[in-house]
Hints:
- This protein is mainly α.
- The protein has one domain.
- It contains 7 helices and no strands.
- It has helices at 3-30, 38-49, 67-90, 93-96, 100-109, 112-122, 134-163.
- It starts with a helix and ends with a helix.
- The model has no long low-confidence stretch (mean pLDDT 96).
- It comes from Pseudomonas imrae.
Amino acid sequence: MTFLQVATQVFLLGVGATVVMDMWMFFRKALGAPTLSFAFVGRWVGHACQGTFAHPSIGQATPVRFEVALGWIAHYATGVVFAALLVCIQGVAWLREPSFLPAFAVGVATVAVPLFVIQPAMGAGFASSRTPTPGMNCMRSLISHGVFGVGLYLSAVMIASVLQ
């Protein structure tokens, strides 16, 4: 496979897995469960681009222009980066013959980013420790990233079947 073919498959893999994760989020939202505000993600990214990486409360930080769009772009870009991580770990051959366990394991492992980087930077503390329900929030994040891992696998299977 050429670099462009691999890059295209990784891009599609990351987007596909993120779509699966978002479908899970929309399902949870329809049931009345709280979900992530991509405006806050965009606000954090916007401030990070200006050199401010940590906030006491991202909700109290000054809004940035186009923060909702910026948040969604960052969300999907992160999904593509995580897909690239999976392919780097497993090798390009995994794209031709995807297996569930590596995809699921990488998906679950990616929960470290929100728990130990994003949430503290947004003022929620390590592993949501500054929120009213840290245990529940951590479990929601873990499940969502597990769903992302399932999405990595399902997307890889679909991509491989189309290319064969």
